[in-house]
Amino acid sequence: MSTEILPPSQRAIVAARERLQAGDVVALPTETVYGLAGVATDEAAVTRIFSAKERPSFDPLIVHVPHLPRQRLAAMVEAGWVDRAPLDLTAVERTEALLDTFWPGPLTLVLPAGPTIPGIVTSGLDTVAVRCPDHPVFQAVLEAVGEPMAAPSANRFGRLSPTSAGDVLEELGGRIPLILDGGPTRVGVESTIVRVEADGSVTLLRAGGTPVEAIERAVGCGVRRAAGDDQSAPGRMLSHYAPGHRLRPLPSRAGELTPHQVEGLLAGTDPTAPIGVLVFDPMGAHARERLQALFGRPLELRELGAESGPAARALFRSMRELDRSAGVLLFAEPVSRTHELWPAIAERLSKAMA
Ligand code: TXA
Ligand code: MG
To answer: Fewest beta carbons less than 10 Å away: which of 153, 174, 287, 346?
Structure first.
């Protein structure tokens, strides 16, 4: 199968609509990462998503919904995507607060599943993950098709999420017919996922593009972190987002590495292997030269920035770029900051290292 890439245009939206209505899959940009979309109520289309990605069927998909201007929960209940019955009054109020505050945007809510969502989308769970993407191209396709869209990140299972149309081609070229090119994604990491429990308590299942402290402000209560062994969000599996080469943590900030530490990092490795390093705070010419001298090998440095927004935006792209050099040894600075998008960055780095 040849894979076509179209820039966003009315013709591209029509091409995507025709494919999707015929039960095919299309890669679409969102504000977080590119998604591989299929009509959520079409089981054959959803099966195609799983097979193009080589994704195991026990890992459920997020259902992407159109922009709902008001009464968002009621609209989703009416459409049969979500079931309100199990939710108590607090749960309904907090769900509405989250929808009003963060949609459209990088927040996915796990809610009781409604009758129109097939079990293949939810992997048989009685909950469904819903999200309203903040991207004009995805929204135009949702509107044209008139159905909600299941869409996991458009990468082969367990690999780095794609943040550009070129990344999607690298991952799924030859396996899918069409990619709409919306340029590089704005957020760069996937949506935050929270589950609203029947009693209104809120559980974080995946850190992502919406900071948890903002979620806590919107609902007026603390957000519980899911236990490490909570398999109810199967994306919590270790070894996700893995680059082709092994990524290892630096024992300290790059500027503070000692010769002894670097010796330890390089012990037993191929002395001709190039080094790729992800750092956050900008280093300055002097620190860069020192690092180069310490490693004593061809060094590719990616400085992601001291602000979590730009760092998140550059994260997957930088890992993918470094990963392209043959035989490269990849290292990343540790992240200890716990606000804004830092937990999302830390979670992705640690999964890539697992
Ligand atoms: O930003 C995003 O969320 C991107 C874009 C494309 O929208 N999508 C995305 O999808 O990251 P995916 O499939 O790569 O990750 C979705 C995660 C999976 O880890 C899955 O386990 C979890 O959502 N999930 C889906 N339905 C769930 C449910 N009912 N309960 C708990 N977790 C669920
Ligand atoms: Mg994914």
So the answer is: 174
**Residue 240 C-alpha to ligand 2 middle, in angstroms?**
8
pLDDT digits (tens, 9 = 90+) for 118-162: 999 999 999 999 999 999 999 999 999 999 999 999 999 999 999
- Cβ of 128 below 6 Å from ligand 1: yes
**Which one of the ligands is nearest to 36 CA?**
1
Ligand 1 pocket test: which of 122, 153, 186 has the largest number of ligand atoms within 8 Å of its C-beta?
Answer: 153
Atom of ligand 1 at shortest range from CA of 193: 23
Return phi, psi of residue 2, to 5°.
Answer: -95, 145
Low-confidence ranges of the chain (pLDDT < 50): none
Buried/exposed code over 179-188 (b: 16+ C-beta within 10 A; e: otherwise): bbbbebbbbb
Q: Which residues pair with 63 in a beta bridge?
A: 130, 150
User: Which ligand is the nearest neighbour of the Cα of 171?
Assistant: 2
Alpha helices in the chain (DSSP H): 10-21, 43-53, 72-78, 89-102, 119-122, 136-145, 165-172, 212-219, 259-266, 284-295, 308-324, 342-353
Please work out whether the CB of residue 185 comes within 6 Å of at least one atom of ligand 1: no
Residue 312 phi/psi, 5° resolution? Answer: -65, -40
Can you give the pLDDT at residue 342? 98
Model confidence over 266-303: pLDDT tens digits? 999 999 899 999 999 889 999 999 999 999 998 999 99
**Structure-token pair, residue 299:** 């060094």
Distance 27 CA to ligand 2 centre (A): 13
**Which sign does the torsion angle of CA 339, 346, 212, 107 carry?**
positive
